[in-house]
Specification:
This protein is mostly helical. The chain is built from 27 helices and no strands.
């Protein structure tokens, strides 16, 4: 990764070297090449996915150059691709003996540790590499560190590592391309805005920094600032496709549907058919109540990609909105089958099944949604109302309690639901005591429980609690 040398045959392309190598092996002649040439040939086969050939060349290369750390690194890389973990470990150890300063040695040891589930050890290897790395390589090493944190589901440190990478080298294209995902996963949009502004101050023509800035503004609901940032992206690089979809999203959120449509159409004009753009157009026309055009664009999205979960989801929501529950159910099932990890798919499926009076399956669908994402307040309310109708409030209570992790952002909301369940199940005294405690600390959340358990409003002890806290209902 950090060293790619090929001085001996600098005038020859990898394809020419491969052709030369294969010609010699076919003719039965003995093959001898310099280290740099072997590296290029191994990389060519590896990048082409022809790992058995890469392994064959790596074996020949290390036999001819038994003191080349670079060739043993290549051999270890090929072994990893072939899932030959023990061989990879042996070859990287050999490479380390030959040259303990080669950063790829530490990268490979970290990769092996991650495969073995030893992520802390992997981070230690990268830290060792950071100690011996020069300034040019440091930025890339922090990207490696970010990968390990992401694999460990430590999204905050994944973001912080990419931030360090960019503070070291604001022009690191890979880090600039990847940081918006880390920002989304870690919810560090405010901090990212400061970071991207620093980068822009140093490099005003960094379209990726302008895009990352716009992306965070969009997520924070600062739509006018997002639009301004995306405008700069398109001035600097008219062909950066993502900016068109996101500026359309910003205009759509502001209710400026004509501008949103204009940028979607411009995207199609520049980049051709796009399922994502067609879905965006479907969403916009749905907001405008132009259901015919909305339907057309969702269909176009599916024509571009028959496995478009978002396309089927869009159709299902559109048909549900029109009261066509049977047709909506058909597309909701398709959407959920394609993407079983999207909570909104399961919630919509639950809605459709509820309308079809399939209450048992509806309950399971809502339950699946909140298992995937536990702070979906709307889905919790739907599930609560359904549990009352099905006389399954005890099951609902157990689900609420099972989900009550202290780190859950919706913990106060869930505690209100727990108190409501106790009230419904005849444990009024316990419920009222819980309400007293909750209202004193989380006053803003209390109304939600009445949506699920409206009978609480007729309980005098509950009304006294509200009056004591100066709450009018």
């Amino acid at each position: 990764m950090f060293q790619e040398e090929s001085e001996e045959f600098g005038f020859e392309s990898p394809k020419e070297l491969v052709s030369q190598y294969e010609g010699l092996t076919r003719s039965g002649n003995s093959v001898y090449m310099e280290e740099g040439s072997y590296e290029q040939i191994i990389d060519f086969y590896k990048d082409s996915g022809v790992y058995h050939k890469a392994k064959e060349v790596a074996e020949t290369a290390t036999a001819q150059h038994p003191f080349s750390s670079r060739l043993f690194i290549k051999r270890a890389q090929v072994s990893l691709e072939l899932d030959q973990l023990e061989d990879a470990k042996a070859f990287v150890e050999r490479a380390k003996i030959l040259d303990a300063t080669d950063l790829d040695v530490y990268i490979l040891m970290a990769d092996i540790a991650v495969i073995e589930g030893r992520n802390k050890k992997a981070l230690n290897y990268i830290d060792e590499a950071i100690k011996v790395a020069d300034q040019l390589d440091l930025s890339d090493l922090y990207i490696e560190k970010s990968d390990i944190y992401e694999d460990s589901l430590d999204y905050l440190n994944s973001y912080r590592s990419l931030k360090k990478s960019l503070l070291i080298n604001p022009k690191n294209t890979e880090a600039l391309h990847r940081i918006w995902i880390a920002v989304d996963l870690s919810s560090q949009h405010e901090d990212n805005i400061k970071l991207q502004k620093l980068i822009i101050d140093k490099d005003p023509y960094s379209f990726l920094a302008w895009y990352n800035l716009g992306h965070s503004y969009l997520h924070l609901g600062l739509y006018e600032k997002a639009i301004q940032a995306y405008d700069y992206v398109m001035i600097i690089n008219e062909e950066y496709e993502y900016a068109y979809l996101e500026i359309a999203e910003a205009y759509s959120k502001m209710g400026s549907y004509k501008s949103a449509i204009r940028y979607c159409e411009k995207s199609i004009e520049l980049f051709g058919d796009s399922g994502s753009v067609y879905i965006k157009l479907g969403n916009i026309y749905k907001e405008e109540k132009d259901f015919t055009k909305s339907y057309k664009y969702y269909k176009k999205a599916i024509a571009v990609n028959s496995d478009s979960s978002e396309g089927y989801y869009g159709l299902a929501t559109l048909l549900y909105q029109q009261g066509r529950y049977h047709d909506a159910l058909f597309y909701a099932e398709k959407s959920t089958k394609i993407n079983q990890y999207a909570p909104k798919n399961w919630t919509l499926l639950g809605d459709c099944l509820n309308q079809k009076n399939d209450l048992k399956t509806s309950f399971s669908s809502y339950e699946k949604a909140i298992t995937l994402e536990s702070d979906l307040k709307g889905t919790w309310i739907k599930l609560g109302l359904l549990s009352i109708g099905m006389d399954k409030v005890q099951d609902y209570l157990e689900l609420v309690q099972h989900t009550m992790d202290p780190s859950n952002k919706a913990i106060a909301f869930l505690k209100y639901l727990e108190a409501g369940c106790y009230f419904h199940l005849g444990k009024q005294k316990k419920a009222v005591l819980m309400f007293e405690d909750l209202i004193s600390r989380h006053k803003d959340e209390f109304k939600i429980v009445f949506e699920v358990f409206p009978e609480i409003m007729s309980e005098s002890s509950m009304l006294n609690v509200l009056a004591k806290n100066n709450i009018k209902v």
